[in-house]
Amino acid sequence: MLNKVDDGLFYKNIRGPAFWGLINPEWSLCNKGRRQSPVNLEPNKLLYDPNLRLLHIDKHRVSGTISNTGHSVIFTVDNSTRHHINVTGGPLSYKYQFQEIHVHYGLHDKGGSEHSVDGIAFPAEIVTEYPSEFLNNQVTK
């Protein structure tokens, strides 16, 4: 089954965390969390929070490696980097240490983004990756 996922034949028709348990039973908890990716943003349902703090991103130069997987370009920060980039504030409950940037893209002008706005996907998107405190397969709530 995973070889079909890898070449995209299976995954293109099954999208979103509600279906991930069908792809791999170990991922069955993905459809139970409320803060799961991908997300469909609905601007008309968003609320303004006047008490929201500013998002703070450390400004350090970091060294890393760029690789192309065929469906995304990935920049990975070297583990030996002297300073790390931390992201805090805003709606975040934790300090996140930047680890990777993924540029997801499609073969054509649509379908490259994982996330959508009002159900509309985009040609590409940039996703940042951080080490997770939830790597033990617990549901993030």
Question: Can you tell me about this structure?
Answer:
A hairpin with a 6-residue loop joins strand 5 and strand 6 (96-97). The two termini are 29 Å apart. Helix content is 9%, strand content 26%. The protein has a 4-stranded antiparallel beta sheet with strand order 3-4-7-9, with no helix packed on it. It has a 3-stranded antiparallel beta sheet with strand order 2-5-6, with no helix packed on it. It is built from 2 helices and 9 strands. The radius of gyration is 17 Å and the shape is globular. 2% of the residues are buried. By secondary structure, it is mostly beta strands. The chain folds into 2 domains: 1-32, no CATH class; 34-141, Carbonic Anhydrase II (Roll), CATH 3.10.200.
In terms of topology, how is this protein built?
Blueprint: H1 2-6, H2 17-23, E1 40-41, E2 55-57, E3 64-68, E4 72-77, E5 86-89, E6 96-97, E7 100-105, E8 116-117, E9 124-129
Parallel strand pairs: 1-8
Antiparallel strand pairs: 2-5, 3-4, 4-7, 5-6, 7-9
Helix content: under 10%
Overall mean pLDDT stands at: 78
**Measured distance between first and last alpha carbons:** 29 Å
Strand count: 9
Determine the CATH topology of the largest domain: Carbonic Anhydrase II
Spatial order of the strands forming the largest sheet: 3-4-7-9
CATH architecture of the largest domain: Roll
| Strand residues, percent | 25-35%
* Structural classification: mainly beta
Give the overall silhouette.
Answer: globular
GO biological process, one term: one-carbon metabolic process
Organism: Diploptera punctata
Domain Alpha-carbonic anhydrase: 7-141
Protein name: Alpha-carbonic anhydrase domain-containing protein
